[in-house]
């Protein structure tokens, strides 16, 4: 069965595209067939893909498509989704109604956040959108908040400490245990050098790889739980 | 992420890069959508289309609602002209009560509005 994962946060620069690229690379490395869909008008994902093509660094097992409309997405999902093990959807970093059809198609929505108030609020909005679409369509799409671009200094901030109680206790959605650190390699990848998993393994890359493996393991677990509980959210 | 104990680089496989086949130039996927658009929709889609239209207007309605909710929490300002004496009293009160003039004015305005049933 095709697993559909979307990255949604109404605030730009939270790390949606990066998170999806890393997850896609991991699934592709395992031999999966992964489709990535760019629904962001800024085309970050598609630019990365064409840059990769120019540098002859497109990864094996990943295809990238660009759809800017709900209809385009729906039609693509109907015609092509079955051919893939995983479909990862990148969305615009702004409040838009286009996220509704994305949530309707998704099994899991990941909202990446940096420890900043606006991004936490953006993630909460995304969660509420997921709840709304779930209720309207009788779906059980899961939602998780992923802390990204973490640095040593940011971990000492008050907001960082508050994220867990806010997300888990107040908002009551899932908070990924894995944190994605701010790493140079994640920036480098955007220049079109393929996926993280294609890079020669150095100490720095190994840390990023371990982080990504932990994240994907958590994603798998979240989706497996969903299957086990009969899609009861 | 408790990775310190076993950071051996050999455990990570490197992903292969795609072999570029010279014959088939990969078409730019950006075009996909526009290529398929011109197909005329079958007649039966009209009810489906209205349902879809309703769903998308529902989505934008929810978005507007969200923005309105967000506005509720934000501050809205009023500029008040006071004579020197009133200002002095207000300042003194805020100093003595160890609170801000803003808090006092807010309370006073609320009290007035509540008392007069606005």
Automatic annotation (TrEMBL), chain A:
List, alphabetically, the InterPro entries matched.
Answer: DNA_Partitioning_ATPase, P-loop_NTPase, VirC1
Keyword list (alphabetical) reads: Coiled coil
Q: Does the keyword Hydrolase apply?
A: no
Q: Which residues cross the membrane?
A: none
Q: Which residues form a coiled coil?
A: 198-225
This protein is called: Chromosome partitioning protein
Identify the species of origin: Mesorhizobium australicum
Q: Which lineage do the record's taxonomy fields give for this organism? A: Bacteria, Pseudomonadati, Pseudomonadota, Alphaproteobacteria, Hyphomicrobiales
Automatic annotation (TrEMBL), chain B:
The record's region (Disordered) falls at 1-61
Q: Which GO terms describe its biological process?
A: regulation of DNA-templated transcription
Q: Where is the composition biased (Low complexity)?
A: 36-61
Q: What is this protein called?
A: Uncharacterized protein
Please report the organism this UniProt entry assigns to the protein.
Answer: Mesorhizobium australicum
Q: What is the lineage of its organism?
A: Bacteria, Pseudomonadati, Pseudomonadota, Alphaproteobacteria, Hyphomicrobiales
